[in-house]
TrEMBL record:
Any one GO BP annotation for this protein: dTDP biosynthetic process
Keyword Acetylation attributed: no
Domain Thymidylate kinase-like: 5-199
EC number in record: 2.7.4.9
Full protein name: dTMP kinase
InterPro entries: P-loop_NTPase, Thymidylate_kin-like_dom, Thymidylate_kinase
Transmembrane regions: none
Any one of the GO CC terms: cytoplasm
Keyword terms: ATP-binding, Kinase, Nucleotide biosynthesis, Nucleotide-binding, Transferase
Length: 199
């Protein structure tokens, strides 16, 4: 069983992952968990953290194709471990996967052909070229945008925030980007029955 939770920043994915893993454990199912991106991973994790801290420029200043390569590289590096867990009979639960790349990178382009072309390119890069395993189920947690705004305005804490080194995440700071990311996720879910919207 391979399940992915997707959503905007601050949508509650981490909470839902904890609840899902608890439910699996109560039913006797061993599960493994990974949060993408893996900021502690060599090469890609470090570069992704630098990008999200704004070291390469703002949200609209770095070509989304190049950014997509960084996030895809992180997942490609970890794919053998996911396959090993699945082959060993474990459930795998991920906080973000390929559709996060689609959502956040495509939202940086105008709706229409440019956005659609990048979406196809990312899906081909990750699933065909990089050969990532496809999840059995991907869930997009669609929360009211006012909830996202409120969560992102709060001080966010935890070990998963160390990559910021006291700074801010350029994706989280761009509420207009977050709105467009939601649009991309919903469009992707309308086109792909494997991506289910949970509202």
């Amino acid at each position: 069983m391979f399940i992915v939770l997707e959503g905007l920043d601050g949508a509650g994915k981490s909470t839902q992952v904890r609840l899902l893993r608890r439910l699996l454990a109560e039913r006797g199912v061993e599960s493994e968990y990974v949060h993408f991106p893996r900021f502690d991973a060599p090469v890609y994790g470090e570069l992704i953290a630098r990008f999200l801290r704004g070291e390469f420029g703002g949200v609209g200043q770095v070509d989304p194709y190049l950014v997509a390569l960084l996030f895809a590289g992180d997942r490609a590096d970890f794919a053998p471990q996911i396959r090993q867990w699945l082959a060993g009979g474990r459930a795998v639960v991920l906080d973000r996967y390929v559709y996060s790349n689609v959502g956040y990178q495509c939202a940086k382009l105008p709706a229409g052909e440019q956005r659609d072309r990048l979406m196809r390119w990312i899906l081909d890069l990750e699933f065909v070229h990089n050969g990532l395993p496809r999840p059995d189920l991907s869930l997009f947690l669609d929360v009211p945008f006012s909830f996202t705004e409120r969560k992102l305005a709060e001080t966010r804490e935890g070990d998963d925030r160390d990559y910021l080194r006291g700074g801010r995440d350029i994706h989280e700071d761009a509420l207009d980007l977050q709105r467009r990311v939601r649009e991309v996720y919903l469009a992707a879910a309308a086109a792909d029955p494997q991506l289910q919207v949970i509202d």
